[in-house]
Amino acid sequence: MNTVKQDSSEWAEGLNLMAGPYFLGLYQPSPETKGFWEGVTRHELLLKWCPACQRAHHPKRIVCTGCGSAELSWKRSEGRGKVYSFSEVHHVADKAFMASAPYTIGLVALEEGVYLLSRLLAEPGPIAIDQPVRLDFRVLESGRLLPVFKVGQP
Question: Is the N or C terminus of the chain more exposed, i.e. has fewer CB atoms within 10 Å?
Answer without folding.
Answer: N
